[in-house]
Amino acid sequence: MQFLNLADATVITFLTPTMVGIYSAIFLHQPYPRREQLASLLALIGVVFIARPTFLFGNSAYAQSGGGGGSTQPNVEVTPVPTVTDDGQPTTQASRVGDEAATRHFMGILLALLSAVGGAGAFISIKSIGDRAHVITTTNAFSACCTVVTGALIAIAPVVGYAQPQLRFMLPQDLVQWVMVSAITFCGFLTQWFLTIGLSSEAKSNKAQAMVYTGMLWTVVFDRWFFGQNMYWSSFLGCALIVGSAVWVILMPKPEDRHKEAHDIEEDAASRGPEADPMMADTGALKEGDAEELMLMERVQW
Where on the tree of life does the source sit, at the highest rank (predicted)? Predict the structure, then answer.
């Protein structure tokens, strides 16, 4: 988030559900049907239409929508800097600034992809655990690991001089900050709790992680109602794609339901026997008629 705008970072991090489906097929040997792949792709396209990242739509997209479309990137007027001198030679300062901006953008994309890969690893771990551990146990273990890692980073950062003096331990200074931190804690706990329940209950399918795309709908709603951001036409198209793909995934039968249906059909056919099959019944009748004809011919010969 320090190197990318909100739209670009959102699109890249929303690659996590698709990676979870791929991980499930590789490591857990679970089916990843084409329909679920297509639904995930449609939802990701919907996220792209809502976020409207600059690497696809350019900076003009924000100017046309007034900074809306699900993004909070401000409209900042940047004065162009000449990249060459009057005699056609490149400007050293402009080149240095451009190289630094490109490096920061590349670093942001790399870190966002790493975040998506790490998030997919966490999802696949929860799916692998399934219902073998209680939801609270898994949630507390995840929180404890995050506390240890962040605590170690805060302790080491002053020693190595990384991101100082911003990166340090601080308590909220007033009531508003305490309320905001408490809200983040409560909402974060509920998010992790419900996500763990969903992934554990749908351990053999990819429906739970596909529902993560619906979070973009709440982002659009909050941007419109709380921050006054205007919605662009692409936002409505993206919302329609996300909702449609989510409904499609929900209506898909579970893998065990499809196997159970096929197994029930086989058992039903076996229990009814050949009498219930018209072809077998015709064959049986033909055999009985042949036997009577043979007996009649034997009597005539005698």
Answer: Eukaryota
Query: Given pLDDT bands bounded at 50, 70 and 90, which one contains residue 96?
Result: low
Give me the sign of the Cα torsion angle 10, 234, 245, 36. negative
pLDDT per position as a tens digit, 120-146: 898 888 888 888 889 999 999 988 998
Note whether 30 and 24 are within 8 A (CB): yes
CA distance linking residue 242 with residue 37, whole number of Å: 14
How many CB atoms are located within 10 Å of the residue 172 CB? 12
- DSSP assignment of 2-68: -SS-HHHHHHHHTTHHHHHHHHHHHHS-----HHHHHHHHHHHHHHHHHH--HHHH-THHHHHHTT-
Indicate if the pLDDT at residue 276 is higher than 80.
no
Residue ranges per structural domain of the chain: 6-252, 265-301
CA-CA distances (angstroms) from residue 25 to 34, 42, 273?
12, 20, 39
Q: Are 231 and 68 in contact (CB under 8 A)?
A: yes
Q: Looking at this protein, which amino acid is placed at residue 247?
A: V
Q: Which residue has the tokens 């329940």?
A: 197
pTM above 0.70, yes or no: no
